[in-house]
Write a structure and sequence with these properties.
This protein is an alpha+beta fold. It has helices at residues 3-12, 41-46, 105-119, 190-202, 229-249, 293-313, 319-322, 369-385, 403-406, 416-426, 438-458, 462-468, and strands spanning 17-23, 29-35, 48-51, 65-70, 76-77, 85-93, 124-136, 138-143, 148-153, 207-212, 219-224, 227-228, 253-255, 269-277, 280-281, 335-337, 344-346, 358-360.
Length: 471
């Protein structure tokens, strides 16, 4: 869809307002809205000026003037706004030149694709993220200088089998780690997920399946079809927007926190990837598990750079509460065919070469999808360009290995602080082609350290009172 087509589309749908959506550095959509009468062809060419000084991770008031450049190909009618509203996803640019703002995540993934194409390796990168999430009925949290607590609740929570507030408690609450694929009535949120899927379908996203996930208390998964990098980044932003707003319609709340519950599985965002050129899947071949040599080198790059990648694919302190033994989260840097205990898995996709891909299982849905895609692509390209072979595959259940054998397999970092240190020390591969700038990496490390790591480290948590109050 081009600019005039987007304007015509809006008029045909009776749009009264136009919503400009853009992604902050952390990964959350922000927006501003104008009347439909203010939208013109010049809007797409010259953009809409705004003050970016309060956007997380962006420059302060001394360099606050920014421009939103709407992408007409992203035109959709927002399904949740009361007044018919055209939605446009935007790139962020500098006002003087309309050049890409180097802290705009959507621009970063575009630069990664341009770098890939400049190398001649491939012309298209396909991504298929699988973002799990929890649906809760209630969430409360507070932090003051003399108190702190959180509490989430769900009618499906296994801890509510004895609750009498429901009037008659009917049971059917999945036990911890037993929530995978139960039929109704245990899966009480089937209709809610179906409604989410129908909204995604109306937005042009091809849903492939939905189901209850492993954890108790409403852990869910909805899969939609893979797409090229920028399109998939936009679709993932719509995905989060849709599931949150459909849940809100029904008085429920959604979180993409990797580990909101202690003692049960967390939420991952397994990232399926493949490179293509001239309509051919470059990952299909006659090597291990039906992969090409290029695909093996791509895996080599992912495994080599995974400790630094974690700063972007597992970007919260909460991420590392998921990445612990015992909860199906892949923490060992190995690859394997079909095997879900390895960080990189080659799905058994059958004989069709178009379906051949790799699945990186370490990422989680707290990641900024644009930065996660760009970082993973840069790691894989580095593996291809430098012929980084991943070594022998590990066709074993890594979770079941004896401790002394498991200790020989490299692991991901144990904390966000360690991941940021790896990024600072070994993040040079991201800056090839000026894809990630030094300014962006420094800003990311500084923001995560000052706004997340240090505040978490400096505050007592409830379990410390359990451990230490009577010392």
């Amino acid at each position: 869809m081009k600019a005039q087509e987007a304007i015509n589309f809006a008029k045909e749908k009776g749009a009264k307002m136009v919503d400009f959506k853009f992604c902050d550095m952390v990964g959350t959509w922000q927006h501003l809205t104008i009347p439909m009468g203010e939208l013109s062809l010049e809007t797409f060419e010259q953009g809409v000026a705004f003050d970016g000084s309060s956007i997380r991770g962006w420059k302060g008031i001394e360099e606050s003037d920014m421009v939103l450049l709407p992408d007409p190909a992203t035109a959709k009618i927002d399904p949740f706004m009361q007044v018919p509203t055209l939605s446009l996803i935007c790139d962020v640019a500098l006002p003087e030149t309309l050049e890409a703002y180097d802290r705009d995540p959507r621009q970063v993934v575009k630069k990664a694709l341009a770098y890939m194409q400049s190398t001649g390796v491939a012309d298209t990168a396909f991504f298929g993220p699988e973002a799990e999430f929890f649906v809760f009925d209630d969430v409360r949290y507070e932090q003051t200088n003399n108190s702190g607590f959180y509490m989430v609740d769900s009618s499906e929570g296994t801890w509510n089998t004895g609750r009498d507030e429901e009037g008659r408690n009917l049971g059917y609450k999945p036990r911890h780690k037993e929530g995978y694929f139960p039929a109704l009535p245990t899966d009480s949120m089937h209709d809610l997920r179906t409604e989410m899927c129908l909204e995604l379908d109306r937005l042009g996203m091809t849903v492939e399946r939905h189901h209850h996930e492993v954890a108790s208390a409403g852990q869910m998964e909805i899969n939609f079809r893979f797409d090229s990098a920028v399109n998939m980044g936009d679709k993932m932003q719509w995905f989060k927007y849709v599931v949150k707003n459909v849940a809100r319609r029904h008085g429920k709340t959604v979180t993409f926190m990797p580990k909101p519950l202690f003692g049960d599985n967390g939420s991952g965002m397994h990232l399926h990837m493949s490179l293509w050129k001239n309509g051919q899947n470059l990952f299909a071949g006659n090597k291990y598990a039906g992969l090409s040599e290029m695909a093996l080198y791509y895996i080599g790059g992912i495994l080599k750079h995974a400790p630094a990648l974690c700063a972007f694919i597992n970007p919260t302190t909460n991420s590392y509460k998921r990445l612990v033994p015992g909860y199906e989260a892949p923490i060992k840097l190995a690859y394997s065919f079909k095997n879900r205990s390895a960080a990189v898995r080659i799905p058994n996709s059958g004989p069709n070469p178009k379906a051949k891909r790799i699945e990186f299982r370490t990422p989680d849905p707290s990641a900024n999808i644009y930065l996660a895609e760009a970082a993973a692509l840069m790691a894989g390209l580095d593996g291809i360009i430098n012929k980084i072979h991943p070594g022998d595959a590990l066709d074993k259940d890594i979770y079941g290995l004896p401790p002394q054998e498991a200790a020989k397999i490299p692991s991901i970092p144990a904390s966000l602080e360690e991941s940021l240190a790896e990024l600072q020390k070994n993040g040079g591969f991201l800056m090839k082609g000026d894809v990630f700038t030094q300014d962006l990496i420094d800003t990311w490390i500084g923001y995560k350290t000052d706004r997340e790591i240090r505040p978490v480290q400096q505050r007592p948590v409830p379990y410390e009172f359990h451990l230490y109050y009577d010392i």
